[in-house]
Specification:
The chain has 10 helices and 12 strands. By secondary structure, it is α+β, with helices and mostly antiparallel strands.
Length: 300
């Protein structure tokens, strides 16, 4: 019997457009693989979603990114409905999305993380909380949205209207060096990619625009550093309780590795890093999508 997979995409977070691209690519792959596919552009209407999920599909492919799709919210609803879904469950999703909490957990198992502080706008304007350069970022956004690197000569004085970090933001010491990333698939770290870009850092443009960045796979680092990047990525994946695939973002300062964050819903777009690392190990995009569907679960 043909399995029915519903692909959830879109949503209303700041990462909506990227989610639509991921969802479309996944839907095409699933159809090529012979699954019955229903693609659902999620709106802020739970009743409408419940109607679209009746009758219940066999599996949900969660192609949502960002708030409500990646932070445990949609996972909780799917647990209640008892529908298996791809990627991580409620707890791992919410922990990984909350950057300060994820750093506490990763640090507790011996993974290096950058020093950080939690501040409000008034504390930021006081300018005495951390030596520059530093990074200011929201607690719970992906795709490098809302991230600013503040260097020695930069003037960044957000008003009440332009402060986009809700009540508080995370300010983190900027780690100079090289940008590395590792995909974990189940209990297996795949590869280490180095990302180079002409941008100040691996921002939204660098991630999703053709030519925005170059991906060097395998990363040209020593075997010791390469193996350590694989090790800490798998350790972070397990420590946060992730399922399916995750992607670790790491900085390498020439001596040490620092874990920046874990993405539990990494992109599945044509320029995404996860499919690229899978292909490096001769795992096709369709095989990756099929593996996620066949390893879907429900943690409710």
């Amino acid at each position: 019997m043909t399995r029915h997979v519903a692909v959830l995409m879109g949503g209303w977070s700041s990462e909506r457009e990227i989610s639509l691209v991921s969802g479309l690519a996944v839907s095409v792959a699933l159809k090529e693989l012979g699954y019955k596919v229903t693609s659902i552009d999620i709106q802020r209407n739970i009743r409408s979603l419940l109607v679209e999920l009746d009758p219940k599909p066999d599996v949900i492919f969660n192609a949502l990114h960002g708030t409500y799709g990646e932070d445990g919210c949609i996972q909780g609803l799917l647990n209640i409905m008892d529908i298996p879904y791809t990627h991580s469950g409620v707890l791992a999703s919410s922990l990984a999305m909350n950057k300060p909490m994820a750093k506490v957990i990763m640090s507790s198992v011996g993974i290096n993380v950058a020093p950080h502080k939690i501040i409000n706008r008034e504390e930021f304007l006081a300018s005495n909380f951390m030596e520059r350069p530093f990074v200011i970022k929201p607690f719970n956004e992906g795709s490098s949205i809302g991230i600013y690197i503040i260097n020695d000569d930069d003037i960044f004085e957000p008003s009440n209207d332009t402060w986009v970090f809700a009540d508080c933001a995370m300010v983190e010491k900027f780690i100079p060096g090289r940008e590395l990333t590792v995909t974990v698939m189940g209990a297996r770290p795949l590869a280490v990619t180095e990302i180079t870009t002409g941008c100040n850092f691996y921002d939204y443009h660098a991630k999703y625009v053709d030519g925005g960045s170059d991906h060097i796979i395998p990363a040209n680092v020593s075997k010791t550093i390469y193996d350590e990047a694989l090790r800490i990525s798998l350790l972070a994946h397990k420590s946060l309780g992730c399922s399916g695939i995750s992607r670790a973002d790491i900085r390498y300062d020439g001596k040490d590795l620092y874990m920046l964050e874990i993405n539990t819903q990494p992109g599945m777009t044509p320029t995404s890093l996860v499919p690229e690392q899978a292909a490096y190990l001769n795992i096709s995009f369709n095989e990756l999508v099929s593996w996620l569907v066949e390893n879907a679960s429900c943690d409710g």
